[in-house]
Amino acid sequence: MKKLILLCITIFIISFGSLANEISAIEAAKKLKDNIMIIDVRNKSEWKETGVIPGAKLIQMLSSARTIRKEYISELMDVLGEDKNIEAAIICHSGGRSSATVAMLKEKGFTNIFNVSEGMVGNGNTTGWTNRNLPIKKCDDACK
Question: Is 90 helix (H, G, I), strand (E, B) or coil?
């Protein structure tokens, strides 16, 4: 029974991940020049720890209890607006929350939403927005 549950969870995670359009941190940074919208779905403590991408929209996915916040989807929809073809990149710590967010938005009809697969910190050494020395600013008012 445990093996069956584990198999189902694995299939779900693989399926969820395959729904996401992937983009590297470097590609996302290049697209900033073309005005791609970047949405950072990490928590305030994470924003404070690493800083944030200049111009990024900051929308926390998880509550302090580590569950999806009730307002999360509506806040995303407010920021994205009515245009289902808007180009946006979603970023989190290392790609998990952002991948799930991209999948949710695709289900709602958005077509040009990308997962920054490396996230802000990536593997902690060579990948991720911060390790690639891409633009960062200190998180001020949003982190209070």
Answer: strand
pLDDT 10s digits, 48-59: 999 999 999 999
| Residue 91, helix vs strand vs coil | strand
Phi, psi for 107 (deg, rounded to 5): -65, -25
Q: pLDDT digit string (tens) for 76-93?
A: 999 999 999 999 999 999
Q: What's the predicted TM-score (pTM) here?
A: 0.84
Give, for 13, the enclosing helix (H) or strand (E). Answer: helix 2-18
DSSP string, 17-77: HHTSEEE-HHHHHHHHTTT-EEEE-S-HHHHHHH-B-TT-EE---B-TTSSB-TTHHHHHH
Question: Which domains does the chain show, CATH number per domain?
Answer: 2-143 (3.40.250.10)
Distance CA 22, CA 102 (A): 9
Cα–Cα distance for residue pair 88/27, rounded to 1 Å: 12
- How far is it, in rounded angstroms, from Cα 25 to Cα 126? 11
